[in-house]
Design brief:
single chain; about 325 residues; mainly alpha; two-stranded antiparallel sheet; 15 helices; 5 strands; about 5% strand; globular
Length: about 325
């Protein structure tokens, strides 16, 4: 019986190399992935899945992750206790524990690849939409930064401020999640690949923990949920929501999700979204300019209005308080 159990577990571990093989093949056939997987099979599946999980307001993905962590701790304690008390059969107990972990990783990995992961190998958003994605010169990058600064400065004058002079919302934060789809509905008229009916984004209950990891949001492919760190500074929250919604729509690459967030925020009627999207684009563009020409960066940064500068300073100081060994510099 023990031998048969080991064989069953080993057979499931084969899903790891199978997933790697599927990924390798897909990476060489992006057009096939785009036309068959991303725009048909996966898109339909995720819309159905996210609509079902969207019935409840809390993040099912967060609940699943916490349950797995608790179950792992309980299993680990039981295994250690069994090893201590076992005199003759400790080898099987240890082997069974290791195989259980490998089996779990194998199943999760294969599910990730088949349920969403192949989107990493689809055609780029630029190729799909016909946008020019050729590398910009330093002069072009500088011009882009200047345009974004001027636009962000103008938009900042129209948003609401809190008592500390930091951008805030003219309505309850919970409305951001419900209204976030408006930008996608509008932009899908231009880019139909962004269309679809998906479950609304959800705030993560343990957002404080995400802050220590430097994570602003997580797309959970196993439930089709766009999860957002609710403690994300207000100036960046609308753009973060739209970023996670881009992942939900099958655009896995971070740079593409950022660009889609910028597009959808700009198409949104709410000033909060417009400002947040432009601020996101400004931060990334200025960071890129800083890498290539610090002098130009310094000169352009002087053009920030006091209000934009306050928001940027607030964002920087917010994340600085969470810096530590657990922090990962990610923008998910």
């Amino acid at each position: 019986m023990e031998y048969k159990n080991i064989l069953k577990k080993l057979s499931l571990i084969i899903l790891i190399p199978l997933g790697i093989l599927i990924t390798h093949i897909s990476s060489h056939h992006p057009t096939f992935v785009e036309k068959i997987y991303s725009t048909k099979i996966n898109k339909i599946f995720i819309q159905i899945l996210s609509s079902i999980t969207g019935i409840v307001s809390f993040s099912i993905g967060e609940f699943i992750v916490l349950s797995i962590i608790i179950l792992f701790i309980i299993t680990l304690i039981k295994t250690i206790t069994k090893l201590i008390n076992s005199k003759s059969n400790w080898q099987y107990t240890l082997l069974s524990f290791i195989l259980n972990i490998l089996m779990f990783i194998s199943i999760v990995y294969f599910m990730f690849i088949t349920m969403w992961g192949l989107n990493y190998h689809r055609l780029s958003f630029g190729e799909i939409s016909g946008l020019n994605t050729s590398k910009a010169s330093i002069d072009e990058l500088e011009l882009l930064c200047e345009v974004l600064i001027n636009r962000t400065n103008r938009l900042r004058e129209k948003v609401t401020e809190n008592e500390n002079g930091i951008m805030t919302f003219s309505y309850q934060k919970s409305m951001l999640y419900k209204r976030s789809k408006i930008g996608y509905n509008k932009v899908s008229d231009i880019f139909p690949e962004l269309s679809g009916n998906y479950g609304i984004p959800k705030g993560v209950f343990l957002s404080e923990a995400l802050c220590y990891m430097g994570i602003t949001g997580i797309y959970f492919p196993f439930t089709g949920e766009a999860n957002v760190n609710t403690k994300t500074p207000a100036p960046m929250l609308p753009a973060t929501i739209c970023h996670e919604m881009a992942h939900q729509r099958g655009f896995a690459r971070e740079d593409e999700a950022n660009y889609i967030a910028y597009l959808t925020c700009n198409m949104h009627p709410d000033i909060e979204f417009k400002y947040s999207g432009n601020l996101l684009a400004l931060i990334h563009s200025m960071n890129a300019l800083y890498k290539y020409d610090r002098d130009r960066y310094i000169e352009l940064a002087k053009k920030y209005t006091d209000k934009v500068y306050r928001d940027l300073k607030y964002i920087k100081e917010f994340w600085k308080q969470y810096e530590g060994p657990l922090k990962k510099h990610l923008l998910n």
